[in-house]
Every structure is written in C-alpha cells, then in structure tokens.
Amino acid sequence: MKALRDPVVLLAAPAVLYLTLLYALPLGWLLAKSFSGPAGLTLQPYTEFFGDPFNWRVIGNTLGSALWVTVVCLAIGYPAGFALARAGTAMQIAMLVAIILPLSVGVVVKAFAWQIVLRRDGVVSQFLVALGIWDEPQRLLFTEAGLVLGAANIFLPFMILPIYSVVKLIDPRLSEAGATLGATPSYRFVRITFPLTLPGVVSGVAFVFSMSVSMYVIPSLLIGDRFQTLSTLTGRSFLFMRNEQLGSTTAVILLALAIAVVVASSWLARRLGSTE
Amino acid sequence: MTPLETAARALMWVAALVTVVFLMTPLVVTVAVSFGSSSVFTLPPPDWSLRWYQRLANTRGLLPSLVTSLEVAAFSTAVALALGTLCAIALVRGRFPGRDSISTFLVSPLMLPGLVVGIAMLQGFKAAGLRDAYASLLVAHVVITLPYVVRTVLGALSLFDFSLIDAARTLGCSYPMALLRVLVPALAPAFITSGMFAFLASMDNYPISIFFTDAWTKTLPIQMLQYVEENPDPTIAAISTGLVLLAILALIVSDRLVGLRKLAEF
C-alpha cells in the first residue's frame, strides 16, 4: 500500500466513498441491468429500441434541437465573449449582471417566462411584427423554433463564460506583433486570435450541447408531448408510463451520448493545447 | 481603423446589446406579468395590481415546498463544503496516483444528464431500502452540490502557497490556529462562490428531485411546475419575482464579498 504512506490521501476518502456508493454504484447498476434479460446478457432492449422508426425520430429530435441551440448560442456567444472581455467598465458590468443573474434563477422560472414570451401576443411576436419581419402575430410556443430560442436563452451564459475566459487571457501584443510584420486585420484574426479562442469554444459547445441533449423541464414547458426527446421519453417512461425497461434503455443511450460529448471535447481540448 | 475593424467593433457592440436584452427578457417579463392585473399575461399589463401576490398566500403547498427546498439546499451545501474541501486538500497536497481521475470523477455529476443520475439513484436507493422521500432528497442533493465545491475549492487551493502555514507556525501559531487564520481566509472567496452556486443548483434542481417526491415532500421547482401545468396564471410569476429578488440579493452580497468578475470565472 504505497499510496497510504501519504496520510493526506485519507482526506479524499469521505467524498470519494460518498459518490462511489450513492452515485457511481447506482449508475453502474442501471447500466448492468439494461443489458441483462431473463436469460442473462442481452442486447434485446436495444435492438427493439433501434428497430422502431418512432425512436429514430426521437433521437433526431434530440440531436437536431441540441444542434440548433448550440449554433444559436455560438453565434451570439462568440462575439459576446469578446465584448465582455474588451468592453468598458459600464458595459462589462451590465453584461456580467445579465449573465450571472439569470444563472442564479431557476430553470422552471425561466422556462415559464418563455411560455409567456413566445405566445401569439408575446414579446417576440410583437417585436418581429414591429420590425416588419412578420406580417401578423404568430405563436412560437409549442413550436421547435420556440423551443430552440428558449433553450438557447437559458444556456447562453455557458457559452459566453468559457469564451470570455480565454479571450481575456489573449495577449494583445500578439496581434500587434502580427500587424508589425504586415499581417492584415482579417489574417491576424484567422491566424492568431481565432486559434487561441478555440479551447473556449470547445468547452462552451460541449457544455451547451450536452445540456441541450439532456434538458427536460424546458421541452416539457415549451413544446409539449408531441415532440419527444430522449430525455423527455426517459422521464415519461418512469414517471407516467411506468415502463422501466424503455426508460432504462433511453437513459443508457443518453448517458452514452453525454459521455461521448465529454470524451470528444476533452480529446479536442488536448489536441488544441498541444499544437500551441 | 480599417472598415473591417470597424465592422468587428460594431459586431461586438451588437452582440453585447443583444446578450443583455436577450438574457434579461425572461426576468423582466416575469416581473412585469406578476404586477399586472391580466390573468392571460397581456403585456404591457392593462393595469397594475398585487392580486397575484395576495393569491400567493392562499396557494396550498407553496410554502412547505419552499421550506423543504431551503432545508435540502442548506444541508447539502454544508455537507458538500465539508467533504469537498477535505477532498480538495488531499488532491492538492497528496502525492498519490490517479488524482486527475479522482477530480474528474467528483466533478462528473455536473456533466451527466440529471434525469439519468436521478433514475439510477432511485433504483439504487430502493434496492438499499431507503424509501423516505425527505431523507433521499437530502442524500441525493449532496451529489448535486459536491461538484461545485470540489471544482472551485480545488482551483483556489492550487493557487494557495502552503508555506504560508509554515510561516504562521514559525511565528508562534498553533497548527489549527494557522489553518483557521491563514488557510480559511484565503479560501473564503472560493467557499462563498461555490457555496452560492451549489445552494442555487440544489434549490433549482428538477430532474433528480422529481424521483424523490411524494404527496407530502415536494421541492419548490416540482411544486411550481405542477402548478404551472394545472393552472397557468400569474401566481407563478409572483413567486418567480420573489426568487429573482432573492437572486439579486445573493448577487449583491457576493459582489461585495468576492466581486462580480470572480463569479464569472469558469
């Protein structure tokens, strides 16, 4: 027991033990159970699940909406991360409050607010009509566009903050050095600034995408039952349909998706780190 | 400035404005609706009124669920602060293999779908014979709060110079006193930030709590969502406004104590 020669390791024991017993073990058990049938090891629940075209639509809904949410968050969050790092004090404080305050308010509160915002007479509809983009008010609630807009709003801080944290570390002298050597502004951005922001982009995209894949409250309130995602299907099969078999299967698929995102993003982050 | 640079600056300004307006919209709308007289969320409200706040007092189940949520959040944050800080010290000071994997493991509940963790716990607790909803909530929420503490305290500790403790001891401090007078103040900002986010995460949690509720024990988000689904009226906006106010208060306090920029560190 070489490890125990250092007694400070024992301080980690309570937390590690706690999570092992109450979190890792149950997760492992869920995983094991989903692969075991009456006659031992089986893949039957999965072949059944993937054999049903409805479930493919569920997977498509899940990945499609998560992708759109991520794209919207990145489109707003990338320039916003720069703005937050480089704005003057007043604007920076306004942005920090606008980012941190919603983070401290619960998702049920925000999703409920979006139910109001997305109504036919809601703020978004009024705004688009006033701009002349829409001829008449329309309801966005219970549409996929509404879901994407609401979810992007709720997850946007998780895109801005990682990008902000890398932008504020970029040494402005790098770009100046590029300018001295005759690089045009666009060339400087593409070759100097942009590569340096990539680690922030990767972690922001990973956060937003994995949260969008597993969101449950937001789709329940903003789009309803006819648009099922892996997450809502998992919840429904446990809470309403009492179909634990289906629920365990979708839960394991969700788990695999989440782990894939984590592994892919940390691999990307390592690769980006090593090329610097 | 070249036209391109001007365009880039303009884009930044637009993004900043869009961000502020977009992110504040749900909160502003909620507050506006809660003070309006309209029961169908008309905006701007035809008239101002406090009727939804009066309704709040007569809404059954709301107050008990708020109390449950506060108790669960306070308990789980306290436990997480204790377990998480001890563990962070071991990870920073210890020289043993697998420290990186341990810290990844401890932060991992943040990265996995809450619903899946909730289901796994539900089945695990059932198998272990834990059937009491309230006790299950307490135990389960530590798993939600622990990652926040470990992540932030670990970051703060890796910047802490442990020779300061030796210095304090050389100057005549006893070891416990040195910890209390040197280490604890140095970690205070980390305790405040992580404690606040852990507390809020517990208060806000829906996907894990939903599996540990019964007719008597409900947390606030569960009770609120149930209310929204049963009778959608601005009463929920009134309680949401209360929660927004609470968040503003927490923000002001933590800004005074550690600064807004520190909170934005990710």
TrEMBL record, chain A:
ABC transmembrane type-1 domain mapped to chain residues: 59-265
GO process annotations (BP): transmembrane transport
Membrane-spanning ranges: 58-81, 93-117, 145-167, 196-218, 246-269
The UniProt record lists the keyword Transport: yes
Keyword Cell membrane assigned: yes
Cellular component GO terms, alphabetical: plasma membrane
Topological relation to the membrane, as annotated: Multi-pass membrane protein
Superkingdom as given in the UniProt entry: Bacteria
InterPro entries: MetI-like (IPR000515), MetI-like_sf (IPR035906)
Pfam families membership: BPD_transp_1
Alphabetized PROSITE patterns for the sequence: ABC_TM1
Location relative to the cell: Cell membrane
Keyword annotations of the record: Cell membrane, Membrane, Transmembrane, Transmembrane helix, Transport
Family listed: Belongs to the binding-protein-dependent transport system permease family. CysTW subfamily.
Designated name of the protein: Putative spermidine/putrescine transport system permease protein
Organism annotation: Enhydrobacter aerosaccus
TrEMBL record, chain B:
Gene3D superfamilies: MetI-like
Cellular component, GO, one term: plasma membrane
Subcellular location: Cell inner membrane; Cell membrane
Residues annotated as transmembrane: 12-35, 72-92, 104-122, 134-157, 178-201, 235-253
Topology term for the membrane: Multi-pass membrane protein
Lineage: superkingdom: Bacteria
Domain ABC transmembrane type-1: 66-254
Record key words, sorted: Cell inner membrane, Cell membrane, Membrane, Transmembrane, Transmembrane helix, Transport
Gene Ontology terms describing biological process: transmembrane transport
Family matches, as Pfam families: BPD_transp_1 (PF00528)
InterPro entries (alphabetical): MetI-like, MetI-like_sf
Family as reported in the entry's similarity comment: Belongs to the binding-protein-dependent transport system permease family.
PANTHER family tied to this protein: INNER MEMBRANE ABC TRANSPORTER PERMEASE PROTEIN YDCV
Protein name, entry field: Putative spermidine/putrescine transport system permease protein
Species of provenance: Enhydrobacter aerosaccus
Lineage: Bacteria, Pseudomonadati, Pseudomonadota, Alphaproteobacteria, Hyphomicrobiales
